[in-house]
Design brief:
- The protein is mainly beta.
- The protein folds into 3 domains: about 210 residues, Thrombin, subunit H (Beta Barrel); about 100 residues, Roll (Pdz3 Domain); about 80 residues, PDZ domain (Pdz3 Domain), CATH 2.30.42.10.
- About 15% of the residues lie in helices and about 35% in strands.
- It contains 10 helices and 31 strands.
- The protein has a 7-stranded antiparallel β-sheet. Strands 18, 19, 20, 21, 22, 23 and 25 form a 7-stranded mixed β-sheet that branches.
- A hairpin with a 2-residue loop joins strand 28 and strand 29.
- The N terminus is likely disordered.
Length: about 500
């Protein structure tokens, strides 16, 4: 069996077309399969009849009315800036091997020059006096931003501010009586709903594309604060910052990223929910900057195996893998192995929900957390801190797990220098792995910090915990500066 790697769960995917058709033929049965026995018909499955489906639309909605009503509120953005590139000195071919030229060439190493750059993007007008929403990556670092309306009027725009953590920017043009969009509620979207995008892909102004919602609250590796709306709407370079409409003509998202291996659209596009953008834009307009709150923890998804290990009936919530020293979480008494189930009464269904709930809150505000601790639920209150660039709310999936005939770990206590080097005060150094531990991806050199949320510093402590464990245990492993819980089946 091929060994599955534990830290593959921490690897980030790259985020930054035409479609064929295939015909399928289906047959339908109105009752369960049957067999004939002694001239009697006996159903193979004793299932109750399925409830009749409600009627669904058989054709796509007419998007023409939406485009007519709100297409004029979508703008084209052209940005200019400068980027630094290494100086490439051209030496005549006949002198390339001349020691004199090679001597002076070394002094050009590391020299850079400013190179003009241009970029395209989209945006949409949210107030008639010229406020426009777009993506931060569209205008970041720009020395000049120009906005073109559908009637070909062009304005020089002022960047009021941007937030790279949510990829939201607000710009303003000196105009009045402009057409505006209507903002909607992204929470009303469901997978399968029709949506519409308007933007300027590759500079083609006011291009209209449509598709359906593929998923909600999608977490991407580099944007843990944003619960993206995933669609199959065609989005290409230049669409960034443009609006995503629902069938009511309301903006429910800002098209921001695509997943691609070619640089062009491949069927996966991601939009920032408009309610997230509204919160950020309000701070930019009122204060010129954006502040995000922090709790000071690293979390991972709760699998069924981990839920069983911690005595939780169903896999839900965000499993705390690491707590920063002196952080708001530490001061509130949160520990590795706790599972955060709710924030201010709102359920945390997955670890991806928590960074958004915390990050978009106000620094200094109090939050009430529902926490699963030591096989029972309790409530704690934390005062949120201010998010800084050197702090990351990590979200990781758990590693693989195997069955048990022993954990398959050879461990020993850490010495003082090893503790200092690893930045830990307790734990056991893994010197050998086999069986379930090896299949889970644990490697020699890893540090076993805890078992089922209980800190371990001796082999006897591990044995004691295993005696009272259920069918699986959760091992907290540190590798480098990263920590993650790994479920191991032992029943």
């Amino acid at each position: 069996m091929q060994t599955r790697k534990l830290w593959a769960a921490l690897a980030a995917a790259g985020i930054i077309a035409g479609a064929g058709t295939m015909a399928y033929q289906f047959s339908y049965a109105e009752q369960a399969p049957q067999v004939e026995m002694n001239h009697k018909v006996v159903p193979l499955f004793n299932n109750p009849p399925a409830a009749p489906m409600t009627s669904v639309a058989t054709s796509a909605p007419n998007f023409a009315s939406i485009v007519k009503a709100y297409g004029a509120a979508v703008v084209h953005i052209n940005v200019k800036g400068e980027t630094k590139e290494a100086v490439q000195q051209q030496i005549p071919k006949q002198f390339q091997n001349d020691p004199f030229f090679r001597f002076f060439q070394q002094f050009n190493n590391g020299q850079q020059q400013e190179v003009p750059t241009e970029g395209l993007g989209s945006g949409f007008i949210i107030s008639s006096d010229g406020l426009i929403l777009t993506n931060a990556h569209v205008v970041k670092g720009a020395s000049s931003v120009r906005v073109t309306l559908t009637d070909h009027r062009t304005y020089k725009a002022k960047v009021l501010g941007y937030d790279t953590k949510t990829d939201i920017a607000v710009i303003k043009i000196p105009a009045t009586n402009l057409p505006t969009v209507r903002l909607g509620n992204p929470s009303s979207l469901e997978p399968g709903d029709w949506v519409l995008a308007i933007g300027s892909p590759y500079g083609f102004y006011n291009t209209v594309t449509a598709g359906i919602v593929s998923a909600k609250s999608r977490s991407l590796p580099d944007d843990s604060m944003v619960p993206f709306i995933q669609t199959d709407v065609a989005v290409n370079p230049g669409n960034s910052g443009g609006p995503l409409f629902n069938t009511k003509g309301e903006v429910v998202g800002i098209n921001s990223q695509i997943f691609t291996q070619t640089g062009a659209f491949e069927g996966l596009s991601f939009a920032i929910p408009i309610n997230v953008a509204e919160r950020v834009a309000k701070q930019i307009i009122e204060h010129g900057k954006v502040q995000h709150a922090r709790l000071g923890i690293a979390v991972q998804t709760v699998s069924q195996s981990l839920a069983t290990s911690f005595g939780l009936q169903t896999p839900r919530g965000a499993l705390v893998a690491q707590v920063e020293k002196d952080s708001p979480a530490a001061k509130a008494g949160i520990q590795p192995g706790d599972i955060i189930l709710s924030v201010n009464g709102q359920p945390v269904n997955d670890s991806a929900d928590l960074p958004m709930m915390i990050g978009l809150s106000e620094p200094g505000s109090k939050v009430t957390l529902g926490v699963w601790h030591d096989h029972k639920q309790q409530t704690v209150t934390a005062v949120l801190g201010n998010f800084s660039d050197n702090v990351t709310l990590a979200s990781a999936s758990p590693g693989a797990h195997g069955d048990h005939g022993g954990l398959g770990l050879v461990v020993r206590p850490l010495n003082a220098s090893e503790e200092q080097q690893a930045g830990v005060t307790h734990g056991l150094l893994v010197e050998g792995v086999s069986g379930p531990a090896e299949e889970a991806g644990i490697q020699p050199g890893d540090i076993l910090i805890a078992v089922d949320g209980k800190s371990v510093n001796t082999i006897d402590q591990v044995r004691t915990i295993l005696k009272g464990a259920g069918k699986s245990v959760a091992l907290l492993i540190q590798r480098g500066s990263n920590r993650i819980f790994v479920p191991v089946q032992i029943g």
